[in-house]
Write a structure and sequence with these properties.
Elements: H1 2-19, E1 21-24, E2 33-37, H2 39-51, E3 55-59, E4 62-66, E5 69-70, E6 75-79, E7 83-87, E8 113-118, E9 121-127, E10 130-132, E11 155-160, E12 163-168, E13 171-173, E14 180-183, E15 186-191, E16 194-197, E17 206-209, E18 212-217, E19 220-223, E20 228-232, E21 238-244, E22 247-250, E23 253-261, E24 265-275, E25 294-300, E26 305-317, E27 321-327, E28 345-359, E29 364-367, E30 374-386, E31 423-434, E32 437-440, E33 449-460, E34 463-464, E35 473-478, E36 481-483
Parallel strand pairs: 1-3, 2-4, 3-6, 4-7, 5-8, 6-9, 7-10, 8-11, 9-12, 10-13, 11-14, 12-15, 13-16, 14-17, 15-18, 16-19, 17-20, 18-21, 19-22, 20-23, 21-24, 22-24, 23-25, 24-26, 25-27, 26-28, 27-29, 28-30, 29-31, 30-31, 30-32, 31-33, 32-34, 33-35, 33-36
């Protein structure tokens, strides 16, 4: 089925490219000059292309300054080699929509962007150029924001409720806010892009929000904030999402589902990715560690259901925490007039063939809360090597002192160094830990695994440090277990 979807999407753009007319922005008044706005030229070329039934809008080599560009149906915005789209820093050049068709928690941050589309079909951004959001200069005065909006900084790309979307080949840098936000979109292919997003705070690399049938592949993403984020900040689920063959770096969380989870997640497949420290020399905007907080995070804290997640064949280097899986009950509403969400659910999650090395001492964790348990989670062929070398007083001394933090922001920094060095499991039903290795590169006095309030725990072929003085596995309130 996925192959048919990809073929249909690809075929639509092959036909569009081979037979469509071209529209050069220079013919509509664009200027290769960062002192002159070319916003009108971009939008006139796109309008003309759209009115003629579609085609390709050419951005030739040069640097073009612009405010919001409105991409329309059946238009391919194509950047030739040497072309750079450079964002204006004047807030008046980014009017944003007054109201979107689809409402969510993100309404609070406004809908400002350098390239915007809503309700469009068969749109693409292709080529070899650069989209530069000029993020380190995108400062906004809160007094100028529309009523109810907390922030006015623009994203580089914002596509809302669009269908048949392709983004391929371009580089996207230094957004004022998130780099790319795909929101309530269908049939999206993002392939072979480069993202370097270190221009401002909240600089996520790419956000997939309430989308259906989305493929991110063969890309390099380096961001100040979270790298690749799958969200559901409105009522629609993110479902049938594939992330594969990517290199992701982040000062925060490299690959993450959440925190917004209202609509839920269904059929999430993440594979064949490398997670490593950022190459940026800039100072992290939020005082996060340069090597990143987590490699992989799955977070359900605002209601919704996560069902069917497969994460396979991953390499993680140097983050404070390799794996963070959290079901909480923050239960934040997605809109002011929305009902309070019910507790979320998380089930049917598989993590396999993961190597994490030189990670920090936070310990990986899989935790629900007393009123919301994680169900059916399977870990296999996972190798985690943390730094170790902790002394008493540098970690939480025992499991009873690990606070629940049901309503808090989901992140391992809430706890710090847990009382085990490998894996902390709490409030879980049905978990298998098969053929896994948990070791410290330097001696660590903590046990490898702690399990608290678990129904049906299976541990088979667990390899741990033999030099630690404490037990390998400590269990409390575990109703059924099988340890080999």
């Amino acid at each position: 089925m996925l192959r048919k979807i990809l073929f249909a999407i690809g075929l639509s753009f092959v036909v569009l490219t081979l037979h469509a007319q071209t529209f050069n922005i220079l013919d509509y008044g664009a200027k290769n000059d960062t002192n002159i706005l070319s916003t009108n030229a971009f939008n006139k070329a796109i309008d003309a292309c759209n009115k003629m039934g579609g085609g390709r809008v050419i951005v030739p080599a040069g640097i073009y300054k612009s405010g919001t560009i409105y991409l329309k149906s059946n238009v391919d915005l194509h950047f030739e080699q040497g072309a750079t789209l450079y964002a204006s820093v004047d807030s008046k050049d980014f009017p944003g929509p007054v109201k979107t068709f689809y409402n969510s928690y993100q309404d609070l941050y406004g809908w400002f962007s350098l390239i915007f589309a809503e309700g469009a079909s068969n749109i693409s951004i292709t080529g070899f150029g650069i989209i530069d959001g000029n993020g380190n200069r995108q400062h906004r005065d809160a007094k100028t924001f529309p009523k109810g909006v907390r922030d006015g900084r623009p994203r580089n790309l914002l596509f809302i409720s669009c269908k048949n979307v392709t983004v391929e080949g371009v580089s996207l840098t230094h957004a004022g806010f998130w780099n790319q936000h795909y929101y309530d979109c269908e049939d999206v292919m993002v392939n072979n892009i480069k993202v370097f997003n270190h221009g401002s705070k909240n600089n996520d690399g790419l956000d997939i929000d309430g989308c259906r049938r989305f493929v991110l592949s063969n890309s390099i993403i380096d961001s100040d904030d979270d790298g690749v984020v799958i969200k559901s900040s409105g009522t629609g689920a993110s479902e049938d999402i594939t992330v594969t063959n990517c290199i992701v770096s982040s000062f925060a969380n490299a690959i993450k589902c959440g925190t917004e989870s209202t609509g839920g997640f269904q059929n999430i497949n993440i594979s064949n990715c490398v997670i490593k420290p950022s190459r940026s020399t800039s100072k992290p905007a939020f005082k996060t560690p340069r090597h990143g907080i987590t490699g992989i995070s799955l977070e359900m804290v605002d209601g919704g259901i996560m069902n069917g997640v497969s994460i396979n064949n991953m390499l993680i280097q140097g983050t404070d925490c390799a794996l963070y899986v959290r079901l909480g009950t923050r239960n934040r509403k997605h809109a002011p007039d929305a009902p309070d969400p019910a507790n979320g659910q998380m089930r049917n999650v598989q993590l396999s063939n993961i190597l994490a090395y030189n990670t920090g001492n936070y310990s990986s964790s899989i935790t629900g809360v007393p009123d919301a348990r994680i169900e059916n989670i399977y870990l296999s062929n996972i190798r985690i090597f943390n730094q170790g070398d902790l002394k008493p007083g540098e970690y939480i001394p025992d499991m009873e002192k690990v606070k629940e933090s049901e309503n808090g922001y989901p992140q391992p920094t809430v706890w710090g160094n847990l009382p085990c060095y490998g894996l902390f499991v709490r409030h879980v039903k049905d978990i298998d830990i098969i053929n896994c290795t948990l070791k410290s590169e330097q001696p660590d006095p903590r046990p490898a695994v702690i399990a608290v309030d678990v129904d049906n725990l299976v541990v088979d072929r667990l390899q741990t440090d033999k030099t630690n003085s404490r037990k390998v596995l400590i269990m409390k309130e575990v109703k059924k277990s099988k340890v080999n």
